[in-house]
């Protein structure tokens, strides 16, 4: 276990968030700079975005000492992360997620002098493609220019390494730190492909599906499974020549939503239209979120769901940890390939091979040190 006071905070050049303070830059030539745990926590609590950004870098680090320090920081921040609204936003590539987040974010911050005014917004992304591309296509700052330049917003793309489970865990931890830093509106963007919608659904209070109109087969683009998770479906790009088609798709979506079983939240999912381009429908969308929060806080679902999520996270972290230990066990590494071949050649069954490996794993003496 690393001494937190000796643990270091990595300075990452070109970080998307503001420049680190001068004293950090001064030592950047060492690539690592000592910053005590308390100082990091204090920085986060006073809303210092550069300290927050660096603490998230620590969360994303794969070094054991960084992980230890990151966990301590998350623990220290936990009591300060109450009163937030966590919103998950998904949709096919190009649906307008980033544009809508820009609009909604600006609405909340009050940049256009309307809406809730003065609320801080954090945008986090879970990008299932980042493992392949090495970069993030989401949390795109070119679509979020006013947020990117606002003191009231904090934008963080997904970590570009790691499995979806690892990325999701880091995003959850980042979310807690953002909340402690006073970002009470958390928007988590993910692209509606693969399993990332489920991962995001499990970390938010309100789940929003962004969809588009199409030529006749509008609802085919909406994956049933994702739609079933949605608290609201927004038909975006309801502007210009697309207005009538958008309204028709909204009706179809609302009808489709009625066929799903009632969610345990007691909420009736809604279909809305909006335009991230003109801003029309953004205020209505936010009212819908607030209505949902009010209802679920009153009926107890809000807390029940959050507690359920934290319990699930715990189990996921255990599963990931066990898998990691299993795969790095020297005895397993040696036998895994042999047994895989034996299974492929039909010389043993999958069940028998798996049991052999589990036995090797649970017998540390016979298998060597773990
Ligand atoms: N007309 C119109 N165009 C829009 C609207 N919202 C987004 N767009 C355009 O649609 C394109 C995709 O928008 P993005 O916000 O990048 O979409 P996204 O869902 O974040 O895309 P990925 O991050 O790649 O999955 C851009 O060219 C936007 O300008 C809208 O409300 N109306
Ligand atoms: Mg995007």
Distinct compounds present: guanosine-5'-triphosphate, magnesium ion
* Helix run count: 16
Could you say which overall geometry the principal axes of the C-alpha atoms support?
globular
Query: Radius of gyration from the CA trace?
Result: 23 Å
Structural category is: alpha/beta
Q: What would you say about this model in short?
A:
The protein has 370 residues and is of the alpha/beta class. Helices cover 50% and strands 12% of the residues. The strands form 2 sheets. A 7-stranded parallel β-sheet has the order 5-4-6-3-7-8-9, sandwiched between helices. Strands 1-2 form a two-stranded antiparallel sheet.
Q: What is the fold's blueprint, element by element?
A:
Elements: E1 8-10, H1 22-26, E2 32-34, H2 37-45, H3 49-60, H4 64-77, E3 85-91, H5 97-109, E4 121-126, H6 130-133, H7 145-148, E5 153-156, H8 164-180, E6 185-191, H9 196-201, E7 206-211, H10 224-229, E8 232-235, H11 243-258, E9 270-273, H12 282-299, H13 301-328, H14 330-344, H15 350-362, H16 364-367
Parallel strand pairs: 3-6, 3-7, 4-5, 4-6, 7-8, 8-9
Antiparallel strand pairs: 1-2
Helix pairs in contact: 2-4, 3-4, 3-8, 14-15
This protein binds guanosine-5'-triphosphate and magnesium ion.
């Amino acid at each position: 276990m690393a001494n937190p006071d000796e643990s270091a905070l990595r300075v990452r050049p070109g970080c998307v968030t503001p420049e680190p303070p001068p004293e950090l830059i001064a030592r950047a030539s060492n690539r690592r700079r000592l910053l005590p745990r308390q100082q990091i926590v204090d920085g986060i609590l006073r809303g210092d975005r550069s300290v927050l950004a660096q603490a998230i870098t620590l969360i994303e680090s794969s070094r054991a000492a960084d992980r230890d320090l990151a966990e301590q920081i998350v623990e220290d921040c936990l009591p300060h992360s109450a009163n937030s609204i966590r919103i998950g936003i998904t949709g096919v590539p190009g649906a307008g997620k980033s544009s809508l987040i820009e609009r909604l974010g600006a609405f909340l911050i009050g940049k256009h002098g309307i809406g809730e005014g003065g609320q801080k917004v954090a945008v986090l992304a879970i990008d299932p493609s980042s493992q392949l591309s090495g970069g993030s296509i989401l949390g795109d700052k070119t679509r979020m220019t006013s947020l990117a330049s606002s003191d009231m917003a904090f934008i963080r793309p997904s970590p570009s390494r790691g499995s979806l489970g690892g990325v999701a865990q880091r995003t959850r931890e980042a979310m807690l730190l953002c909340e402690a830093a006073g970002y009470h509106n958390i928007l988590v963007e993910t692209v509606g492909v693969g399993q990332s919608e489920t991962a995001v659904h499990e970390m938010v209070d309100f789940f929003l599906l962004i969809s588009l109109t199409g030529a006749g087969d509008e609802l085919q683009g909406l994956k049933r499974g994702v739609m079933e998770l949605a608290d609201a479906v927004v038909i975006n790009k309801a502007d210009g020549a697309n207005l009538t088609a958008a309204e028709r798709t909204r009706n179809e979506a609302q009808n489709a939503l009625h066929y799903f079983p009632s969610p345990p939240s007691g909420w009736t999912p809604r279909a809305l239209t909006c335009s991230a381009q003109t801003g029309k429908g953004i205020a209505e969308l936010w009212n819908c979120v607030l209505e949902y929060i009010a209802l679920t806080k009153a009926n107890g679902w809000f807390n029940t769901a959050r507690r359920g999520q934290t319990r699930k996270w715990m189990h996921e972290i255990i599963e990931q940890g066990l898998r990691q230990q299993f795969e790095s066990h020297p005895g397993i590494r040696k036998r895994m390939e042999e047994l895989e071949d034996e299974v492929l050649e039909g010389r043993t069954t999958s069940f028998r091979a798996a049991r052999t490996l589990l036995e090797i794993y649970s017998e540390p003496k016979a298998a060597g040190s773990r």
